[in-house]
Amino acid sequence: MNYYLDAFRPYFNFEGRARRKAYWMFFLFNMIAVFITTLLDNTLGMTFDGEDVMGRGYIYLLYMLFTFVPNLGMTLRRLHDVGKPGAFILIGLIPLVGAFWLLVLFCTDSQYGENAYGPNPKGKGNSNEDEISEIGKSL
Questions:
Q1: Average confidence score pLDDT of the chain
Q2: Least crowded by CB within 10 Å, which of 12, 26, 81, 85?
Q3: Alpha carbon 97 to its chain's center
Q4: 70, burial (CB in 10 Å: exposed 0-12, middle 13-18, buried 19+)
């Protein structure tokens, strides 16, 4: 749950890096919240009129408006972690291929060491001391 709340603390922060685990935990809790808001909308009879809205209503809409900026920030920080600029989110607009490519990027491990967007959030490769202390440990 801390990963979910951590996405809201830097509400308008689109800089830096986000680990794979932080992104996917935020995604998981976000999907649970979407399910709950949709369930509440259906239970309380607050759904929009129309057949193609899948039972979503006002509670769902408020939740999505509230989480749009943190979701965007977490996504951009995840792209930064693999060494891609935030503009790569627009790749998702390419039919079929774009969504798959973004999924691959979101599942890719962090770029080792520092990159243009900051130090590795895992702490690996951020300084020469880490590399030097690892020499000979696998023997």
A1: 83
A2: 12
A3: 19
A4: buried
- Tokens representing 29 are 């809790």
DSSP state of 43: H
Tokens of 94: 């390419």
- Rounded to the nearest angstrom, the gap between the alpha carbon of residue 59 and the centroid of all alpha carbons in its chain is 22
Bigger pLDDT: 15 vs 135 = 15
In the block, tokens 């649970």 appear at 32
- Report the 10 Å Cβ neighbour count for 39: 13
Q: Which two tokens stand for residue 34?
A: 């979407």
Dihedral angle computed from the Cα positions of residues 15, 74, 61 and 38, in that order, rounded to the nearest 10 degrees: -170
- Specify the 3-state DSSP secondary structure of 34: helix
DSSP string, 53-67: STT-BHHHHHHHHHH
CA 122 to chain centre: 16
Q: What is d(CA 135, CA 22) in angstroms, rounded to the nearest whole number?
A: 29
Tokens of 123: 């702490």
At residue 7, the 3 state secondary structure works out as: coil
Q: What predicted TM-score, i.e. pTM, was given to this entire model?
A: 0.78
